[in-house]
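Researcher: I need the complex structure. Ligand is C2E. Inputs:
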Amino acid sequence: MRRPYVDDRKDSVLEILEQALARLIADGSEQEFAVFLIGMERSRALSDVLGYSFGEEVVSLGGERIESTLREKDSVVRLSNDEFVILLKSGPSAGESGIVAKRLIDLLQHSYDIRGQVVNVSACIGIVLGPQNGLHAELLLNRAGIALRAAKAAGPGTFQFFEAAMEERINARHALTADLRKALLLDQFEVHYQPQVSMKSGQVIGLEALLRWRHPTLGMIPPAEFIPIAEEIGLIKTIGEWVLRTACRQAALFPTETVVAVNASPIQLNGGSFLDDVDRALAGAGLPANRLEIEITEGILLEHTSTVLRTLHALHARGVRLAIDDFGTGYSSLGQLAKLPFDSIKIDRSLVGASAQQRAIVRSIVALGEGLGMSVLAEGLETEEEYDNARSAGCIAGQGYLFGKAMPSNQVQDLFRQLSCSHSASDSPMPARDDLANHTPRKARRHRRVHSTVLLHN
Ligand code: C2E
Ligand code: MG
Ligand code: MG
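Model: Output:
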């Protein structure tokens, strides 16, 4: 296994590594070793513009550079397109392995001059130290792979040592993924609702449906932990359809002035059956289309396909409201925002703080919304100060712990019962959401908001 031996079959690489390990153990003298998995990342442009064989040449030159740094007793083998495995014998300590890894990365990232074309590639390395992390080639290679993925996640030009915690995280994710596949069938999902409150009247004008997973042993798992997995394994469509159906059915029991906002993943909008899902959910619940709002994160502005575009326009034509969620966190294309039929903008909570800078940002988003005919809601309001800033900047509505956290639908109904008692006492009808478009912040009546807030906190 001395020179970069090219072999794309993992099985034979394993065999070679296994034999090298066997020899190492048979030697008996120095049993400590390190396995490096080196990933070279050729840029897409490199292969696209200069061709696959050019990219190949770069990688094999990389192999030669690796080889030039190794001692006679070390081994190197090419595992796949852009990967090399090396086995360093004679017990390099973690510190020594780190120095070797750094040297290898520098060497591999140095420019390549091939027939006058100068190119650069990036490299990352995953390192597993033996025998403490295993003695079998397959286990060692898998663990080096885990470390390499961690290095790639940390950025180009980095190396990472395998740690047991990395494997535990991966195993936990596998277990969660397996449980997630069964969760719908086992009735473990719940939809909770967080109030959206008018800045003008202080009344609840909408409820955002937020998915919750009540795991039998892990307890309540937040969506940020399992929605990305559901998207990755193709389960988001089924789960999203269930959320739509449930939220529409439960919203039919809320006051007729309230809108229910359902989050949709771009994958659902791209799937082709989203319109049917919405139609079925509305018809099944007997809910008018204008009481449903679909929230989509702003990434959709950058990556919308013709299917997404068609779906958004068809939803708009049905009267379903459309909101752009977490606005200000991505790289929004404002030109696209103007072209898409959104009714409202939800400013991400990272932007609604109390600093002068945040105030300026909120004011400019409100001005943008006004220009485009979209109402603006501030997310994540936690303090009176944040509320005052968002209101004085012209946001028409707010959402956040200040008003209340997401709660199960029966609690929402209790809340409305309490609110309707207090409203009939003050004889003031709840405003329709569309009325808020003509809202003037100066007219806001603070005592009403505080009144509702108190009720919401109960
Ligand atoms: P989002 O749509 O932006 O929802 C708002 C998130 O902020 C919710 O977290 C909510 O509980 C939290 N939040 C609200 N007010 C405050 C506040 O004052 N302070 C703080 N710190 N947080 C606040 P949650 O429920 O954990 O949901 C996280 C994200 O998961 C949502 O962000 C949404 O993107 C996604 N999500 C939730 N339900 C669904 C669903 O049914 N489908 C899809 N595709 N995504 C969902
Ligand atoms: Mg949302
Ligand atoms: Mg949001």
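Model: Summary of the prediction. The pocket of magnesium ion (ligand 3) is lined by residues 325-326, 346, 379 (CB under 6 Å).
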